[in-house]
Design goal:
Low-confidence stretches: 84-95, 461-476
Distance between the termini: 27 Å
Mean pLDDT: 84
Radius of gyration: 27 Å
Helix content: 40-55%
Strand order of the largest sheet: 15-11-12-13-17-9-8-19
Shape: globular
Strand content: 5-15%
Number of helices: 21
Length: 632
């Protein structure tokens, strides 16, 4: 690769050095902070020879280079002297968001970390529907009752989960926040308010302040408002309490002041806001009927792109808690997911680019069967543009069909083929057929529409002159027949498919094939005998080469480069020889997680092209040095 040429083209295509506020790099990406991202043509950047992809994330314009990123950064630095500049934040926009927009953004940001717990509980609810249907589980037995508790726990105590997430969003004490949520859900409080409502009396605090009745289980907005106010209560109490009394007086005053505010003012206000928001959304459904579902299904990808899809979760939860099902947003979401998968499948079949066919194929599978659409959305349909239109058409048609036949959803597990059972209505056997036909129609229409509309295929070369000097692909040298290389896990934890990593750079195999481990403790060991090629200065990633010729990238967490080395403690240095099992890196897993970072650790064979086959061979719990990747 001609690093100087690549650097010049990249700098030109991001708007020149005058558009660059700062530039840093991690193990695989150039991370630009730009004055104006809107002037950058993503497609032009992607066509640059040596660029694997681009991402706009966390205020950074990220260009994925791969293992050669340091060399490209060095050439860029020669052009702009970026390393001598203090890393600054991008200029703040003067545009002010409306109150509804700010509210939706806040709800969405708080809901996102809670989604895994909700999905886990929702999937148990799916089992509670499926197992009795096939005669495996008795609905009158103890097992069913216990599973019901497991499936309902996260929903009933939703305010506690939301309080924890909101405390990070608003920068307040997590345990105070959780305590307020627990007060709102205390059985005695619920019993007191229910008894008063039934008796037609009013509960009064201090004898004269009325406490409005509201149910806070399954709720979201009331606790968000309570935790928002908690940050100000904390600051106030901190100012008025003497230093010598802070360890006991401050906690008491915080709870004593905040709890009444939550129970008397903000809790009821939040309940009202939640009801209003729900009424507004479902009034659209009431007025437009099944046409509303088709519209939602067609525009849902753009809702996901805006990061607003999680804001619908409390609305769906409230509806299911009230009437037992949801028949609007969940239907549109299912059709949107299926359409993204179908459009990606069409691209996979029609594309002539071998590498991109694989990316589109894996993205289609992820969307159709797991309901994970980000790889399909960002890596395929949005990137090619025209397939996005095909996906929207298919989703809209599927939504119209499902809405016309009054399809309902009884859970909020990720909408996908494997979770179709959550759309099955008890005592209405035809509901399964309706759900299956909705999925089928969505897939068929989106697939055909994408094939008809077509798309401009991905071209790897930068431009015609680059084709003349194109570097030859690495020669694939299959191992002798029957011989395999086994790569061990650098950490104990849970092994997951690379496709499930929440970063398209890894999940789409842009950097190579491999797997990922969610570590259970903050320690990495060498998976084989070899050399540390690069121990990144921030400690969040390690590049190794084994004696067997395998080049391995171990990347601890997502976007953890932003920590600047905080919580990471390298035990080895670049160029150092290591033996299998040697501790190469230690890190504070809990602290990194508390900072809001996903600790999932991809383990990538970065020279995948040098082998005939690289595949994961483990899924689920693994011990340190268990085999997780096999190379042939």
């Amino acid at each position: 690769m001609d690093y100087e040429s690549v650097a010049k083209k990249i700098l030109q295509r991001v708007g020149g050095k005058e558009n660059v506020v700062s530039l840093v790099h991690c193990m695989t990406r150039l991370r630009f902070t730009l004055k104006d991202e809107s002037i950058v043509d993503d497609e032009a950047v992607k066509r640059t020879k040596g660029v694997m992809g681009v991402m706009r994330k966390a205020g950074q314009y990220q260009i994925i280079i791969g293992n050669d990123v340091a060399y490209v950064f060095e050439e860029l630095n020669k052009l702009g002297h970026f390393s001598n500049e203090t890393v600054k934040a991008a200029p703040k926009t003067k545009e002010k968001k409306s109150i509804p927009s700010m509210l939706m953004d806040t709800i969405s940001g708080i809901m996102a970390p809670v989604i895994p717990a909700i999905i886990g509980a929702a999937m148990i609810k799916v089992l509670l529907t499926l197992l009795p249907m096939i005669g495996i589980l008795d609905t009158e037995g103890y097992t069913y009752s216990l599973l019901s508790v497991m499936g309902d726990g996260a929903f009933f105590f939703m305010p506690v989960l939301i309080a924890i997430s909101a405390s990070k969003k608003f920068g307040t004490n997590m345990y105070y926040a959780a305590s307020i949520a627990l007060i709102m859900l205390h059985p005695n409080f619920i019993s007191l308010m229910s008894s008063a409502q039934e008796a037609g009396t009013v509960v009064r605090f201090l004898g004269f302040i009325p406490v409005t009745y509201a149910s806070y289980s399954y709720s979201v907005i009331p606790i968000i408002l309570a935790v928002w106010s908690l940050q100000y209560v904390e600051k106030l109490v901190d100012k008025i309490t003497p230093v010598v009394t802070k360890n006991f007086l401050k906690p008491m005053l915080v709870v004593l002041i905040e709890a009444p505010i939550a129970l008397i003012v903000l809790g009821p206000l939040g309940a009202i806001c939640g009801n209003v928001l729900s009424d507004v959304v479902y009034s659209i459904h009431d007025k437009l009927g099944f046409f509303a579902i088709g519209i939602v299904a067609g525009v849902y990808p753009f809702v996901v792109m805006a990061g607003m899809h999680h804001a619908f979760t409390p609305i769906k939860l409230g509806m299911i808690a009230t009437v037992g099902y949801e028949n609007f947003i969940c239907i549109g979401e299912l059709c949107s997911n299926m359409a993204q998968g179908a459009a990606s499948l069409a691209v996979s079949i029609r594309s002539k680019n071998k590498d991109f066919k694989q990316v589109a194929g894996s993205s289609a599978f992820s969307a159709l069967f797991a309901g994970i659409t980000e790889p399909a959305l960002y890596g395929v349909t949005l990137r090619l543009r025209r397939p996005m239109l095909g996906a929207c058409i298919g989703a809209a048609v599927g939504g119209l069909f499902g809405g016309f036949f009054q399809m309902k959803c009884f859970g909020i597990a990720t909408p996908a083929i494997v979770t179709i059972v959550q759309y099955v209505e008890e005592d209405r056997a035809v509901s399964l057929l309706i759900a299956a036909l909705t999925i089928l129609i969505t897939i068929v229409v989106a697939f055909i529409a994408t094939m008809i509309i077509g798309f401009e295929d991905i071209v790897d070369e930068d431009d015609e002159e680059d084709e003349v000097v194109e570097e030859s692909a690495p020669e694939i040298k299959p191992l002798p027949e029957g011989q395999e290389i086994h790569i061990a896990s650098p950490a104990a934890g849970t092994c997951i498919p690379l496709e499930q990593v929440k970063d398209a750079t890894f999940s789409q195999g842009i950097l190579g094939k491999g797997t990922a481990v969610i570590p259970e403790k903050g320690e990495l060991v060498a998976p084989f005998d070899g050399k540390i090629d690069v121990m990144f200065e921030t400690g969040h990633a390690v590049g190794m080469t084994g004696e067997n010729g395998v080049e391995l990238l171990i990347h601890v967490g997502m976007d953890t480069v932003n920590l600047g080395g905080k919580y990471f403690y390298p035990q080895k240095t670049s160029g150092e020889q290591v033996k299998r099992g040697d501790v190469i890196l230690k890190f504070d897993k809990d602290a990194i997680t508390e900072e809001g970072y996903d600790i999932t650790t991809p383990v990538i064979v970065s020279n995948t092209d040098a082998f005939a086959d690289v595949s994961a061979c483990a899924d689920g719990p693994v011990k340190e040095l268990d085999e997780i990747i096999v190379i042939r």
